[in-house]
Amino acid sequence: HLATSLPLPSERDHLRPRIDLVVFMIDIKSKYSLKNVEASLPYVDASYFLGKVCFLVTGVGRVNYCSIDTSAICKLGEDYCSPVLFCELELEGIRVATAQRLLRMLQICAGFVPGVSALSFSLLMRKSADD
């Protein structure tokens, strides 16, 4: 399910499925994109930041057109203890790999991978990013 911003409308709460993973998409070519994500963050329950939120940054293949400094996005990931994934959606191979990675994250967050919790997976991702 996709939403352009948070909070989600309350009139369909009773029909909404369980939310296992929240992916904030940031278009690196649009400052509005980052501002929209920052405005939406307060509406996410704090418990989701324990392994059930990630930031997906698109458009990284066009460095000349970037409107957002990548360090600001990395700081956002650090501040919210959430992984940041960088991708270029225009390249099919990278798009497919990113989709597979997000699907695997979703499987873990939904509890479909025995022995791996969303929190432990998030910590593993952060540790490998720090090395």
UniProtKB/TrEMBL annotation:
Q: Where in the cell is it found?
A: Chromosome, Centromere; Nucleus
- On whether Coiled coil is a keyword of this UniProt record, the answer is no
Cited InterPro entries: Centromere_Cenp-M (IPR020987), P-loop_NTPase (IPR027417)
Q: Which UniProt keywords are present, listed alphabetically? A: Centromere, Chromosome, Nucleus
Where does this protein chiefly localize?
A: nucleus
What are the annotated GO cellular component locations? chromosome, centromeric region; nucleus
Q: Which domain of life is it from?
A: Eukaryota
Query: Which Pfam families does this one have?
Result: CENP-M
Protein name from the UniProt record: Centromere protein M
Q: Which organism is it from?
A: Scytalopus superciliaris
